[in-house]
Prior knowledge:
By secondary structure, the protein is an all-alpha fold. The protein contains four helices and no strands. Helix 3 runs antiparallel to helix 4 (about 110-120).
Amino acid sequence: MPSLTQARTRPATAGMLCSSLQPRLQRSWFHGFLIRLFFRAMARAADYMLTAEEIRLRTRKRRRIALVLLSVLVLGLAAFFGARPAANAIKGWQSRRHATKAFALIGNGSWNAARNEVTAA
């Protein structure tokens, strides 16, 4: 342990954080902020004098909320990444259906109806 005189003669930069540690501290501050923001309504069971039943119900509620949030996240990601391929598949199917009808109408000699089907595709 340094003596009192050694502590006074220490350079001024010794107590400052080096610049490489600042982003890590900022991330941990932000992470802590998010945790406090989302879980402020449900404090830890150790903060209160709760019965075993109350702790069990609180834990069950916390798990249910986490499961709902996870489900919403997964469904949102599936919709985000799956919407365009699904729309393209539907458009392709509709185009093939209209083209099949148009070729059948051309075979029958209904040129105006075939033209309408082709423009619908």
